[in-house]
């Protein structure tokens, strides 16, 4: 129980520190949001008024604190670019990104884990899986995106090349190529890790013991190989989901999907720092959440860690 | 009960000659990578055309003896742009790894050597950095410092520092506990002399492996930043930019620019990863 | 003597090492009668453990074996998958040198003890009762609580007892013990050996006891076989071999360890132990034997009856009682 609290405490600390660093860095960025807001023909008086109105004349720690308390309540300020509340801007985009990441996670689970476990059925597949995974890992998301568009949208015409689609079927159809592009290298990574950890466990002494006791092979595989191999796989899955969240930035831009990621890129170019800050923090929260969950899962799976954390 | 074999005289194994034989696969990978770097350095001598000047009349030309991979949407030779593009595409990650390795090695070894609260603070900061994906750090850095090469390179150096430092710290911690460091210490050498002359050479194979593996990841991240339009700006030749530039052509039925630049990225990353895996195996054998 | 329980006849094993098959066992022939304890003695790398693994058919993939291993007259290598599973599940059990590595660390002791019984359809309550009873017999009193604990919560000695109990849950007739006490500290070693000895006699179990410790083997076994470089070089009653060893290697092994209460010099066998695949065409020990002749280096001796034991040495008769090694011999090598 104590180690659970410690993991959660570490996560909270990480989030707080990350918010401080990101807020501080953006606040110190060159350029004055008040001038931007006031427009090109603003008088110094108007700028000063805007500065006061948005609290920009207060000291940095005070501004950070009021931003933080606002952010906790879902208030991220106003977007310079759209003259609209950031929360209202993000609300319709968040589900799009979540759907994309969820879809990609399913693909990774099915294909990554499936591919990784293939060699345990037949040793002959080992080389094939190793090579496929090794090349797959090296394919950047944006390259995977374009290759998928070229092959499945343009050559074969199975899926649309861009856009979000309407209705559930339409959304799934439009998100299929982006999700595969996003999942591609991570599926390869998961395949590589699961192949390696299953292989490692199969060579372990305790598996020899189990085989030597005449237990049926499927039982040995499930109880002694897969169960133990699950620990590194779970750790990697946490990293994977976190990586997908970062990867969604690229994929949404590549496919022109209106999610958080594409808005982030757009806002960086437009110097819309409130939006940049809000999306960055949401992504960091998601990232920390994913790694924390995998830490907790690891704790549940490995009695040795539970014990060492207790003592 | 003593081991019977303890009392049997043991002579050095006869077959002790399998160390440091040149691995042909390693040599092959190394040769290809060296050729790539040479091509980047000697781009003006090798590239058949200027990377910037195109002939709009031959835009999106198919491959031909004059233009082996055809031309892009504004009629620039794709092969020449790929060769020139290798410069920034390889230099960027090399800078990132150089900075991250220097910072990581310094942080890890000083943390292990000084210990105490300093070690705690360094470890916390590294954990924090590790918790945020490199791509996001780079994007925030661009938001602060503006587009170009400097912001993402600095940000990614920061983001990759924990990859080197965290692994190194745990190994250095183990090495430090080994008796030999203590004996050198007793012999009266200063802390830094011990670190540089004894600790560092022993963790070198591991540093090499981690740095090589991080190079591939840094290359992909940096290319992604360029692809998003947040890094170096067109018309600079760079592989990430070429994938992005070529995207419109691809949708119009001319996929060669995007695909060839993407292919080069994949090839380089595969080779570098293979190299890193070999280094990692060697580091494991050495440690 | 009745028909043997287990019989090995000219067993040879080759394992893939760096892609090539290397011999790890040249010739292992012995038999174990029901209820009998046989010691298999040799230095590490001599092929003892591989012999046990060959009997269990637990060799690494792509290993090649020749010769025969038969259990109650049936060929073990010829077993079908299901027959092999039955053989392992009901007839034979093995305990290993390092229980910490040989028991799954993420499953409870209860899982480890019960899974073999449950796989055979024993009801959980009955299986648990039997496991607790067996734990008591190996000297673990609070069995019910131990079943819920994990291996890392046990000491090495306790874990080895659990391993022994787990080997016995299915009432096998033959137990293979591969250096079961080597990883334990000295007092625990004695306790575990005593438990093993008692249970064996009580249940009429046959035992193949693998060890590098000739004295220990002599103390707990009826007969023993001495193995060197994948060859059995001497086999006979434990007492005879302990007192009147014939093979120069056995003699060297016996005298290369200090004896309590004796100020006699420790002998040193020159050279280092060779692996089976390094041995030349002659006697596997020829390279280290001060008495080796030309014949020893070209013609490999087989086991033959000399006095009361079987020995693989061309010069066994003439050397009897006169074999000696000295530290000087090591230097001149």
Spatial arrangement of strands, main beta sheet of chain A: 1-2
CA radius of gyration of chain B is: 24 Å
CATH topology of chain B: MetI-like fold
Give the integer mean of the pLDDT values of chain B.
85
Text of the CATH class of chain B: Mainly Alpha
Q: For the record, what CATH class of the largest domain in chain A applies?
A: Mainly Alpha
Sheet of most strands of chain A: 2 strands, antiparallel
From the alpha carbons, calculate the radius of gyration of chain A and give it in angstroms.
Answer: 24 Å
| Secondary-structure element string of chain B | HHHHHHHHHH
Looking at the overall shape, the CATH architecture of chain B is Orthogonal Bundle
CATH architecture type of the largest domain in chain A: Orthogonal Bundle
Tell me the name of the CATH homologous superfamily of the largest domain in chain A.
Answer: MetI-like
Instruction: State the helical fraction of chain B.
Output: over 70%
Largest interface: A-B, 49 and 44 residues
- Mass-distribution shape of chain B: elongated
Number of individual domains of chain A:
2
Query: Counting H and I runs of at least 4 residues, what is the number of helices of chain B?
Result: 10
């Amino acid at each position: 129980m104590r180690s659970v609290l410690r993991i959660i405490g570490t996560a909270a600390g990480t989030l707080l520190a990350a918010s401080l660093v990101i807020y501080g860095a953006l606040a110190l960025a060159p350029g004055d949001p008040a001038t931007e807001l006031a427009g090109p023909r603003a008088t110094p008086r108007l700028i000063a008024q805007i500065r006061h109105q948005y609290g920009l004349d207060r000291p940095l720690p005070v501004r950070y604190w009021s931003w933080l308390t606002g952010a906790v309540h879902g208030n991220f300020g106003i977007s310079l670019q759209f003259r609209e509340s950031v929360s209202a801007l993000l609300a319709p985009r968040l589900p799009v990104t979540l759907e994309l990441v969820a879809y990609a996670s399913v693909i990774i689970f099915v294909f990554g884990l499936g591919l990784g476990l293939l060699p345990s059925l037949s040793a002959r597949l080992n080389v094939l899986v190793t090579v496929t995974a090794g090349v797959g890992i090296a394919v950047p998301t944006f390259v995977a995106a374009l290759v998928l568009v070229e092959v499945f949208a343009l050559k074969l015409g199975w899926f649309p090349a861009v856009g979000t689609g309407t209705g559930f079927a339409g959304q799934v159809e439009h998100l299929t190529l982006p999700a595969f592009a996003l999942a591609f290298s991570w599926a390869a990574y998961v395949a590589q890790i699961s192949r390696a950890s299953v292989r490692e466990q199969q060579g372990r002494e305790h598996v020899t013991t189990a085989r030597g006791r005449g237990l049926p092979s499927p039982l040995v595989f499930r109880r002694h190989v897969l169960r133990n191999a699950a620990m590194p796989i779970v750790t990697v899955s946490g990293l994977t989901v976190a990586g997908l969240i970062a990867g969604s930035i690229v994929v949404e831009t590549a496919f022109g999907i209106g999610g958080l990621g594409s808005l982030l890129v757009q806002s960086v170019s437009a110097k819309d720092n409130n939006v940049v800050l809000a999306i960055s923090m949401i992504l960091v929260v998601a990232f920390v959440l994913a790694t924390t969950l995998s830490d907790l899962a690891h704790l549940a799976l490995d009695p040795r860690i539970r014990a060492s954390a207790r003592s | 009960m003593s081991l019977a074999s303890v009392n049997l005289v043991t002579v050095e194994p006869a077959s002790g000659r399998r160390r440091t034989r040149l691995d042909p696969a390693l040599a092959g990978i190394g040769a290809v990578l060296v050729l790539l770097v040479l091509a980047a350095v000697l781009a003006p001598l090798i590239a058949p055309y200027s990377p910037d000047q195109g002939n709009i009349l031959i835009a999106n030309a198919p491959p031909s003896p004059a233009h082996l991979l055809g031309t892009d949407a504004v009629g620039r030779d794709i092969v020449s742009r790929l060769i020139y593009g290798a410069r920034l595409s390889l230099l960027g990650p090399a800078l990132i790894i150089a900075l991250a390795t220097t910072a990581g090695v310094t942080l890890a070894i000083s943390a292990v050597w000084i210990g105490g609260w300093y070690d705690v603070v360094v470890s916390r900061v590294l954990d924090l950095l590790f918790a945020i994906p490199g791509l996001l750090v780079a994007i925030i850095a661009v938001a602060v410092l503006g587009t170009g090469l400097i912001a993402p390179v600095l940000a990614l150096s920061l983001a990759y520092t924990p990859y080197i430092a965290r692994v190194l710290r745990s190994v250095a911690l183990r090495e430090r506990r080994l008796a030999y460091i203590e004996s050198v210490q007793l012999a009266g050498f200063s802390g830094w002399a011990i670190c540089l002359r004894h600790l560092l050479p022993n963790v070198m194979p591991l540093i090499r492996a981690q740095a090589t593996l991080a190079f591939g990841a840094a290359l992909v991240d940096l290319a992604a930043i360029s692809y998003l339009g947040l890094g170096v700006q067109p018309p600079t030749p760079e592989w990430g930019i070429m994938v992005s530039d070529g995207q419109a052509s691809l949708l119009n039925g001319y996929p060669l620019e995007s695909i060839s630049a993407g292919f080069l990225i994949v090839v380089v990353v595969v080779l570098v990863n293979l190299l890193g895996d070999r280094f990692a195996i060697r580091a494991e054998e050495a440690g | 003597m009745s028909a043997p329980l287990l019989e090995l006849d000219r067993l040879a094993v080759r394992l893939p090492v760096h892609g090539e098959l290397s011999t790890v066992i040249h010739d292992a022939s012995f038999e174990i009668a029901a209820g009998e304890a046989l010691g298999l003695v040799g230095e590490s790398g001599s092929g003892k453990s591989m012999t046990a693994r060959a009997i269990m058919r637990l060799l690494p993939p792509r290993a090649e074996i020749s010769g025969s291993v038969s259990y109650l007259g049936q060929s073990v290598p010829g077993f079908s998958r299901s027959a092999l599973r039955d053989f392992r599940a009901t007839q034979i059990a093995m305990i290993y040198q390092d229980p910490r590595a040989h028991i799954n660390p993420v499953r409870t002791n209860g899982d480890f003890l019960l899974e073999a019984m449950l796989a055979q359809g024993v009801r959980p309550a009955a299986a648990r009762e039997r496991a607790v009873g067996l734990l008591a017999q190996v000297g673990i009193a609070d069995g019910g609580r131990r079943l819920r604990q994990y291996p890392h919560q046990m000491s090495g000695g306790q874990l080895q007892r659990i391993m022994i109990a787990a080997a016995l849950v299915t009432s096998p007739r033959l137990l293979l013990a591969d250096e079961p006490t080597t990883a334990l500290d000295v007092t625990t070693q004695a306790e575990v050996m005593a438990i093993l000895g008692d249970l064996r006699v009580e249940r009429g179990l046959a035992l193949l006891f693998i060890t590098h410790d000739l004295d220990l083997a002599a103390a707990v076994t009826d007969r023993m076989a001495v193995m060197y470089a994948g060859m059995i070089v001497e086999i006979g009653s434990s007492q005879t071999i302990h007192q009147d060893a014939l093979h120069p290697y056995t003699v060297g092994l016996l005298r290369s360890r200090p004896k309590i209460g004796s100020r006699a010099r420790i002998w040193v066998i020159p050279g280092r132990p060779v692996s089976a695949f390094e041995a030349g065409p002659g006697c596997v020990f020829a390279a280290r034997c001060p008495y080796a002749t030309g014949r020893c280096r070209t013609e490999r001796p087989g086991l033959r009856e000399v006095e009361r034991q079987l020995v693989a040495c061309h010069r066994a008769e003439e050397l009897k009682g006169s074999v000696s090694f000295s530290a000087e011999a090591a230097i001149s090598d």
